[in-house]
Amino acid sequence: MKWIGQNxxxxxxxxxxxxxxxxxxxxxxxxxxxxxxxxxxxIVKATEASGDLTSxxxxxxxxxxxxxxxxxxxxxxxxxxxxxxxxxxxxxxxxGTAIAQAYIxxxxxxxxxxxxxxxxxxxxxxxxxxxxxxxDDQVTFAKASGVTPNVFGSVIKLIPxxxxxxxxxxxxxxxxxxxxxPSDGTLYGMRPGNNAVELFAxxxxxxxxxxxxxxxxxKNDVGIIVYEAQINATTMVSKGTGNCxxxxxxTDVASTATNFLAIQVTTTSVNDKVYGGRVTIA
Length: 282
Hints:
The chain has no helices and 16 strands.
């Protein structure tokens, strides 16, 4: 029996078996609906959804597509400025802005964590490194390139044995001697062995440093001349003159692989006596 037409009944219909519908139009299920058709146009009841999630909003640092469904997608933005706390980072390569000094823990960096030649005078300020931040025996003389045993802080100390005589007194009359003279209250010093002899001290400037001032201490305030000389004896240029017991502000001399200071003490008598000196470096 085939009925073509339309009947409207104000009745309640109950079906004991499956119900199928034919020629069903595609449409949108109204909000809150939970009945639908399977692939055979059979009426089925969907499992009721739980919770009260009705939409998804991408918050700070997130972006997304299809946030209203049916398959919402959230993405973490590559650029983040809102992160204030993170856990332990176990791997990765830092390629961002240099870490500020204030965010490096005290004593966090030692010699084992610094590559050879990684730190030079251009990368630290005067006074920024002190003995409190260097472990005992952490810096060895073998690795202190260009440093002489007489360096103390920002000066190179000159002791009496650093001075020697030239040959102005003749081949048999030049020399220098250590003197012990209690009469002037000073028990040490070097003096020329001949009135015509001058005394010289030769000073190596540590690598990366610059010699700026010279002090020579003596008995009679004799004159001094400071030269920049070369180990291959090519040049010897005056960098300043003055007198002993007065600081001589020389033309700055930066260290090179070949230069050094030659300090002439213009002694004129065997009664002149040199106690020592210092070269200021920066």
